[in-house]
TrEMBL record:
InterPro entries linked to this entry: RtcB (IPR001233), RtcB-like_sf (IPR036025), RtcB2 (IPR017510)
UniProt keyword Ligase, yes or no: yes
Catalytic residues (positions): H436 (gmp-histidine intermediate)
Top-level division of the source organism's lineage: Eukaryota
Source lineage: Eukaryota, Fungi, Fungi incertae sedis, Mucoromycota, Mucoromycotina
E.C. numbers: 6.5.1.8
Protein name (record): 3'-phosphate/5'-hydroxy nucleic acid ligase
One GO BP: RNA processing
Cofactor, free-text remark: Binds 2 manganese ions per subunit.
Catalytic activity of the protein: a 3'-end 3'-phospho-ribonucleotide-RNA + a 5'-end dephospho-ribonucleoside-RNA + GTP = a ribonucleotidyl-ribonucleotide-RNA + GMP + diphosphate
Coiled coil: none
Keyword entries, A-Z: GTP-binding, Ligase, Manganese, Metal-binding, Nucleotide-binding
Broad enzyme group: ligase
One Pfam family recorded for the sequence: RtcB
């Protein structure tokens, strides 16, 4: 059998495609051969194959039935088939296509990949979309970008916020003093927090107002994989002593930052939605919309409780605090902040003199800017920044450049003279949002390809001298500090460039817990 010409298309970013010649006789496992080709050519962790229309190819026989010259195969990293995206609608379709939403990019110092901009633009044409905001930590996701906020009217889009509903961060003070804290000794004591929590699950869920789910016994109180972590930190620089004092913070104490979400619960909710509706939106008032919102809200509560239980387990191992699930009765343990950055909420939208509208703010990797202090962590080898949103985030000058809005362009920007700049004074918001972290710079596949540059043991100590607990070597390399953007660029965009936040204090990592093998 001669070789067959195929076009392999990245399911989530369809501008990524490659032509290959595939000879079925060269491999017994034809599915594995196609996935290997896709991994090498598209640089993704390929796990699923679809043909146009959405039928999944799961066996060599099914593949043999569809093999023909110029066949398009959609390669997925695990997500469902999203359909062929049309780059140029027909005249009839264009006549009924609403004007795209306003896209605002607030990244200047921070580098943003073209793929992330492409995904951002794709969301602007969704029905009911009014505003799309790219944060400084914007980077490509599987289908939609991460580090973004989407504002819709009369529609909600579960797929925009993804499967980790309620993911966020909580910051606690602990009873540990910086002067006596020994990271290596603490690392030895942090064991036994991978498996299911053996605490009073039913009791704490009832107290927190969280409905029971099928995942409570196995997942509540667990960190999970990916970029989730529990990190012990210390304040190393205080830039706003007044705000620092108002928050009752102390430079002498160790603080615990936990980043996690709703684990498999959120994934099950999104899977049920996409199985029935795909990536389509829902009317919030419809039965389907109300059903999703109830599940969403419960998943957010579940995720918040999950972070509290994780903090409790860590503190128990280190004798670092009281029962944080009980509310921290001890005088030395306090919750500084607890914020979701993957969720949707209803807000009033509109400027003075305008009729207020009810809109839905979808955050995918974006921290809320209307709830006080925000923690913006860097990579595990970089500092974290405690910031306070400033101003009303409404009135700003912007420049319209290639269809994207920028808050300012410096005089020395090399390309500024080539662009047609149109300054306008308007009133708008940044989606009530700030960046939620550093944002990925490298794909996980690319990060793994650089394993030869240092040993796993070297990866377990950062340039800041902090200790990293991660017994999954693949995850250790995927989450290496170099895989993330410079956190200082993110902060500069929010403070000096955009002026929507001020730095209160800077924290340095002491110990980062990601994963131990059971």
């Amino acid at each position: 059998m001669p070789s067959t010409r195929l076009t392999l298309i990245k399911n989530s970013q369809q501008n990524f495609r490659t032509a290959v010649l595939f000879n079925p006789r060269e491999s017994d496992d034809k599915i594995a051969a196609i996935l290997t080709l896709a991994k090498n050519k598209l640089r993704i962790r390929a796990t699923r194959i679809f043909v146009e229309g959405g039928n999944e190819i799961s066996s060599s026989d099914e593949l043999a039935n569809v093999l023909q010259n110029d066949r398009k195969l959609f390669i997925s990293g695990g997500e469902d088939y999203i359909g062929l995206l049309k780059e140029h609608p027909s005249a009839e379709e264009a006549a009924f296509t609403p004007a795209p939403a306003t896209i605002t990019n607030i990244a200047y110092e921070s580098h943003v990949e073209p793929d992330a901009f492409a995904q951002l633009k794709q969301t602007a044409i969704l029905k009911g979309m009014r505003y799309v905001f790219g944060m400084p930590d914007l980077h490509p996701g599987n289908t939609y970008p991460i580090g973004a906020t989407f504002v819709t009217e009369d529609m909600i889009y579960p797929a925009l916020i993804g499967d980790d509903i309620g993911c966020g961060m909580v910051l606690y003070s602990t009873r540990l003093s910086v002067s006596s804290f020994k990271p290596q000794r603490a690392a030895e004591r942090l064991r036994g927090i991978e498996g299911p929590w053996d605490g009073p699950i039913k009791e704490v869920m009832e107290r927190a107002g969280v409905e029971s789910t099928e995942f409570d016994a196995t997942a509540l109180g667990t960190i999970g994989g990916g970029n989730h972590f529990a990190e012990l930190q210390q304040f190393t620089e205080i830039l706003d002593p007044d705000e620092f004092a108002r928050a009752n913070l102390s430079a002498d104490r160790v603080y615990l930052l936990v980043h996690s979400g709703s684990r498999r619960l959120g994934g099950s909710i999104l899977a049920a939605h996409t199985a029935k509706h795909g990536h389509a939106g829902l009317e919030p008032s419809s039965p389907e919309g109300q059903s999703y919102l109830r599940k969403h809200d419960n998943a957010c509560k579940w995720a918040r409780l999950n972070r509290e239980v994780i903090a409790r387990r860590v503190m128990e191992r280190l004798n670092a605090g009281d029962d944080v699930v009980e509310g921290g009765k001890g005088k030395k343990v306090e919750k500084v902040l607890d914020l979701w950055h993957n969720n949707m909420e209803r807000k009033e939208w509109g400027s003075e003199g305008e009729t207020k509208k009810q809109v839905w703010v979808h955050r995918k990797g974006a921290a809320p800017s209307d709830r006080g202090l925000v923690m913006i962590p860097g990579s595990r080898g970089a500092c974290s920044y405690l910031v306070m949103p400033v101003g009303d985030q409404k009135e700003n000058d912007f420049y319209l450049v290639c269809g994207l809005r920028f808050s300012r362009l410096p005089d020395d920007h090399a390309r500024a003279r080539k662009w047609s700049l149109m300054p306008n004074a308007v009133i708008f918001h940044e989606g009530y949002s700030l960046a939620h972290g550093a944002g990925r710079k490298w794909t996980r596949t690319f990060a793994l390809s650089r394993q030869h540059r240092c040993t796993s043991q070297q990866m377990r100590t950062t340039s800041l001298g902090s200790v990293v607990i991660c017994e999954d070597e693949e995850l250790l390399y995927e989450e290496q500090p170099d895989a993330y953007k410079e956190i200082t660029d993110i902060i500069t965009d929010l403070t000096a460039n955009r002026r929507i936040a001020k730095v209160v204090a800077i924290l340095s990592p002491l110990l980062t817990y990601k994963l131990r093998k059971k």
